[in-house]
Amino acid sequence: MGIYDRSYFRGSSGGWGSGPGSWPPVVKSIVLINIGVFIAQLMITRPPTIDEVRDHSYGIATEYDFVEAYIEDRQNSGEAKSDDAESRREAELAYHEYLANMVMASPRVSVIQSWLELDTNKVMQGQIWRILTSAFCHDRHGLFHILFNMLGLIWFGIALEYMYGQREFLLFYLTAGILSGLAYVGLDLWTGESVPAIGASGAVMGVLMLYTCHYPNHSIRIWFLFPIEMRWLILLYVAFDLHPLLLTLAGDEVHTGVAHAAHLGGLAFGFVYWNQRLRLAPMLDSLQQLDFAKSLRRKMNPQVKLHSPHSSNDKTRASATDDLGSLDQDRVDELLIKITEVGRDNLTEEELEVLRRASERMRKNRK
């Protein structure tokens, strides 16, 4: 572990180029992955299907409405005297030609985006990876979406990566992306709507909030012209996202094209992470060590079989003694408890040797 991965290292004031070097590996990797996915979104495409055109095109006529309007126009112009079968077949053919023209006029579908975007209906069908993968997709028809998200990650994420270390910052960023996605899915389930969403904005908002908690008085320039302190900028973001969310929760139809719930999910997580002094890497290590300890305990404690009251205790003790040989079962139990409390890395060589010999003895007995 390098010096800049250690918890006691702190950057000076954050921002672009802070700390030793201006491109730490996690920020660099996230930016490069987003750029790679964006290029794949641009290049790997296909024409839309008729069903996709129907689902995503507002104002497209249904077959019934089109046929009725077509026949009415023909009658008004004198080209058709009655609603006969021939006129209806001609109207149906005209409708399919109309759909084909709509397909040709519609933008191509990004195959990569269709795999990764956050679609609540598909998430509820089991495609839960979309909650995270959508944070690596951006609007392929413009550059500003990915540009502003990546600039925000670079400007504010670099300082945080040097402050918290590579592994902790990566876990923070991914968790912010997941929780922002869950917030978006939650709002969709509340409203009954399901509009696919993409973008790293939720995760970047978590980064922005955490940076602001550390450097509330740090001043930046909006559009390189207007100076503003981070604490006021974050309040503007909260107000900008909270207002339409409250309108939606109240029952109004709000279509801004922005995933406000995802933004607020990321902002909330960034604040809770700072306020509660959360550390995700130690929590993950503790879970892994606990799982290891439980697995080892199961191996070292065979299933108890019920016998007569007079012999059960003696036989259980004899089984434990035979399994472990000269090893003390109480000693092994103490070491397993110690692993759950302080981690396996904090055991001495002698203690590790005790566990190793106990595990080997159990494997030999089972064979």
The amount of helix comes to 55-70%
Q: Beta-strand level of the residues, as a percent range?
A: under 5%
> Low-confidence segments, ≥5 residues, pLDDT <50?
1-20, 304-327
The biggest sheet amounts to: 2 strands, antiparallel
- Strand arrangement, major sheet: 1-2
Oligomer: single chain
Mean pLDDT: 80
Write the layout of secondary structure elements.
Blueprint lengths: L24 H19 L1 E2 L3 H7 L6 H15 L7 H21 L3 E2 H6 L3 H5 L5 H4 L10 H21 L1 H26 L9 H14 L4 E4 L3 E4 H20 L10 H16 L4 H21 L11 H13 L4 H14 L6 H18 L1
Antiparallel strand pairs: 1-2, 3-4
Helix pairs in contact: 1-8, 3-4, 8-9, 8-10, 9-10, 9-12, 10-12, 11-12, 13-15
Characterization of this structure:
With 367 residues, the protein is mainly alpha-helical. Helices cover 65% and strands 3% of the residues. It has 16 helices and four strands. Strand 3 and strand 4 form a beta hairpin. Helix 9 (166-191) crosses helix 10. The protein starts with 24 loop residues before the first helix and ends with a helix.
